[in-house]
Amino acid sequence: MNKLKTTLFALIVLTFVSARADEGMWLLQLMKEQHSIDMMKKQGLQLEADDLYNPNGVSLKDAVGIFGGGCTGEIISSEGLILTNHHCGYGAIQQHSSVEHDYLTDGFWAKSRKEEIPTPGLAFTFIERIEDITDIVNAKIKAGEVTAINALTSDFLDKLAGELLNKSDLKGKPGISAQALPFYAGNKFYLLYKKRYSDVRMVAAPPSSIGKFGGETDNWMWPRHTGDFSMFRIYANANGEPAEYSPNNVPLKCKKHLAISLKGIEEGDYAMIMGFPGSTSRYLTASEVKERMDSQNEPRIRIRGVRQDVLKDEMNKSDKVRIQYATKYAQSSNYWKNSIGMNKAIIDNKVIETKIAQEKRFQEFAKAKGNQEYMAVVKSIDDAVEKSSAFNYQWTCFREVFFSGIEFGAPYQLCDALKEALDKKDKAQIDSNIEKMKQVFDQIHNKDYDHEVDRKVAKALLPLYAEMIPANQRPSIYSFIEKEFKGDYNKFVDACYNNSIFASKANFDQFIKNPNKKALEKDLMIKFVRSKYEKYQTLLDQRSQLMEPFTLLHKIYVRGLCEMKEPVPSYPDANFTIRLTYGNVKSYDPKDGVHYKYFTTMKGIMEKEDPNNREFIVPAKLKELYNNKDFGRYAMKNGEMPVCFLSTNDITGGNSGSPVINGKGELIGCAFDGNWESLSGDINFDNDLQRCICVDIRYVLFIIEKMGNSKHLIDEMTILE
């Protein structure tokens, strides 16, 4: 009888999960526990569990890492060659670009290792090991060493990670760090050991007319025709260990790299993605979803839209400004459009109704179980949302205007220290503070900052903030503007941007020749920044009080939802840790009468071409290759050149650049986007609509070889015909 129950249990799990196998950002360390490898094999996997993740040996995990600070990259040669997205490498490409060497427009192809460009600040990070530390954390809570709430704070977890690293065999090894994180809203804790390589060099990037083809218009949309890829290389010291840049460093001999398949894809083919999804909120209540729409997405849409209009206008007038603000505009626009799409998809896909239905089922489950905590938790969350939603709107507006919008500022605390030194006539301290101020001035007026562009942004955003936020909730500088400038924001901004000590080199040099208190006290930008940070501290204190109740409430709710789903396994929300998602190559029907096939070809590029629109310019050489059908070995069986394809993989931001891998463990594409109809997917996965947009690896190789004339890069890869 027990054997029969066990068999029935396994069949229930297998049947249910197979039906929804595309949903889930699964923890590698729990793959064996949560998923029978047989379920993945039913989808088309031809590997064993240890081929995916092996804590005691080499596996696919060792060919995937964190690219920069927020993307994924994969190793595609034994000599440290990285493939990631063009938009992930965009900051580095822009960093090395100038009007004279415009790699954004023209692309970049290193013809030898000597031409690969060092990129300060860029790193690639592997996951060395993952350990379950839940028992350690719970023991500390039980012993009274930490409260349940404080156990979820970065202060406690960073300290614990340091303690555990000091006891580890990895202590003191180059590039090694440890990170402790909560999962399942704090019901589980894991420690991740990371190995960071800081000498990463730019190898190849197609022109933006390929890597960013379609621009903001096509962002989040299908059909897509974007060659969204770039390539970098990891360098290490002679021992293969992480080291700061040195001309003596050599390409890293990687322990694992992905072989590349040219066999192509068909509808229904198995596809899995391994990467670092950034953040999802799949366990929100209905009230929290509504709050996300109204208090975060709506103000973000409005404020970023105004700033982006200013930037776009200025970028269209000047190549210098276009290059300076390329990354800033792209970063801002990406989640501006995401917020628009998310709010639309929440309504179209009836996400709030789905959440309400889930809460009803949960309440019935809680009553049947007789669990008072579960029975009360949704109402408690709703009450907390009611108290915090107005504040969250204010918090979003403040951060979007004063931290993400206006760039120009002044180091008011450093200025206060200088005033104190001037009072004391302490020459050593005066000189020390002036030297620090010189550094800050250079940081403000960096190569990617234009004072006149930022002036126009400030003139647009300061009055907009006043429209959106009541007078009694604004920073004190608004009262000052009302009193001293009769509410004229333009006059105030001009006074700041013309006269501040930090507004120009001439102003700054004049001040440091004769530093004096009076100049510091009357400086409007110092006054503005002081007001900004005073308000920030007030809001931070309020936020801490309002958000604290959610910590334990979510811990209870997530634990309950996971119990309610049993025996079906649950996955934790994304938190930029390595995950695996699996599904299939698949077309979809976004609305009545519309069918989207699962792939696109270069024919679509030519159909979209618009020489008068920067987003849809097609390079002459690409047109020539297309017209001559010069696709080499990368064409489909029918002679067409593939560009992008769709899969049902569950992804989010952070997965950009992730490898798309077939059932044999071979690279078939590079993930770069989600689809417009499912932008509510970070909150609620829709099995019918959710799609991952990927650039076909055959198009990547075609561009490298035919557009970049870089067959030497192709030759170092492992390519399977």
Automatic annotation (TrEMBL):
<comment type="function">
    <text>Catalyzes the removal of dipeptides from the N-terminus of oligopeptides.</text>
</comment>
<dbReference type="InterPro" id="IPR043504">
    <property type="entry name" value="Peptidase_S1_PA_chymotrypsin"/>
</dbReference>
<keyword id="KW-0645">Protease</keyword>
<dbReference type="Pfam" id="PF10459">
    <property type="entry name" value="Peptidase_S46"/>
</dbReference>
<dbReference type="InterPro" id="IPR019500">
    <property type="entry name" value="Pep_S46"/>
</dbReference>
<protein>
    <recommendedName>
        <fullName>Dipeptidyl-peptidase</fullName>
        <ecNumber>3.4.14.-</ecNumber>
    </recommendedName>
</protein>
<keyword id="KW-0732">Signal</keyword>
<dbReference type="InterPro" id="IPR009003">
    <property type="entry name" value="Peptidase_S1_PA"/>
</dbReference>
<keyword id="KW-0378">Hydrolase</keyword>
<keyword id="KW-0720">Serine protease</keyword>
<comment type="similarity">
    <text>Belongs to the peptidase S46 family.</text>
</comment>
<keyword id="KW-0031">Aminopeptidase</keyword>
